[in-house]
Amino acid sequence: MAAPTYGCGQSQGPQGQRPGAKWDLGRIVAELRAERERWRERQQRHKDVGGRELPSREVLQEIVTQLQGALFPMRLGPAQLHQETEDYYIGYTLDAALEALLGQVRLELCYAARHQPAADGAVEERAVHIVRSFAEALPQVRALLDTDVEAAYSGDPAARSVDEVLLCYPGVVAMIHHRLAHQLYRLGVPLLARIVAELAHAETGIDIHPGAAIGAGFFIDHGTGVVIGETAVIGQRVRLYQAVTLGAKRFATDEAGNLEKGQPRHPIVEDDVVIYAGATILGRITIGKGSSIGGNVWLTHSVPPGSHVTQADSQHSQHSQHSLPPPTPLKAAAA
After folding, report:
1. Domain boundaries, the chain
2. What Rg value do the Cα atoms of the chain yield, rounded?
3. For 174-188, 259-273, 297-311, 312-326, which range has the lowest pLDDT when averaged over its residues?
4. Phi, psi of 5 (to 5 degrees)
5. What are the CB-based long-range contacts (under 8 Å, 24+) for 139-142?
6. For residue range 143-173, what is the model confidence (pLDDT) as tens digits?
């Protein structure tokens, strides 16, 4: 019998050829192993014992999907759901999601204990406490998300209903992820939080670090290219447009030249601020309550409440920056 052909009349190859021989896989696999071993040696990693030690993006994606359904069952839940069975669906879905989350929390805590000895402790007890606390925060998360949806509907003349906003707007998708991720961040599982945030980043093009504290009624219109850094603090009823950056101006280093992690380095945005497309706001500065920051403005100094900053007058604003008070902490919502 003739060997089967695959495109352009070429045969599959010699009969009985060892699998992978055509690609020289033996050599490639060996070289990849050598690169892994060099990496693990540089990172002072012990040989992994057993299965995968890190949380799974795929599992977390499924957990987030389940949580979205539990938070908004008649909009983001299954198509065949009826209001009469909402509570049953929510209970069943939450139980599955929280059990799966518990497994992921265990993985992060065990990983931290292996690589950061100070993090060692009663992993199972801590994991259960984290997931229980996360579950207890879900009603507050839902309440905050309702304010985000309402802000998007009232702030966009093209929005025809709150249902359209919830189903279609990338800014709302990003905020659902962020409200969940921020809870995980606060509860001490920052790797899980970052994975959830990056799922939203990949889907929407909106990059919100899970550490950012964002108040109620937050609306990102259009959204693509928005970046909000880890230590940003955003008040209530704030609106951002596409390509806005709330970033760091510089990074502090220690005596050895290593970056100092966790230092406040991102802006404080007070209540009722609007920041238009393409604006870049850098450093631990304060944007005063009720201010409006125009499109494509580059801002590295604080502005007082009620300011209206445009490209045309930003140079004048820079001259007056020394007369402004230093940034003051702003209390934002917990999620």
Report:
1. 51-206, 212-335
2. 25
3. 312-326
4. -105, 155
5. 140/334, 140/335, 141/71, 141/179, 141/180, 141/183, 141/335, 142/71, 142/72
6. 999 999 999 999 999 999 999 999 999 999 9
Supply 22's token pair: 């055509």
Q: Which of 87, 72, 201, 220 is nearest to 142 (CA)?
A: 72
Query: Given this model, what pLDDT does residue 260 score?
Result: 84
Using DSSP's 3-state secondary structure scheme, residue 78 falls into coil
> Which residues are within 8 A (CB) of 41 and not within 5 positions of it... i.e. 6 or more apart?
none
- The CATH class, in words, for 212-335 is mainly beta
Is the pLDDT reported for residue 323 higher than 50? no
Q: Pairing relation of β-strands 219-220 and 213-214?
A: unpaired
Q: What type of residue sits at position 172?
A: V
- Topology of domain 51-206 in CATH is serine acetyltransferase, domain 1 (1.10.3130)
Condensed to tens digits (0 to 9), the pLDDT of residues 193-207 reads: 999 999 999 999 999
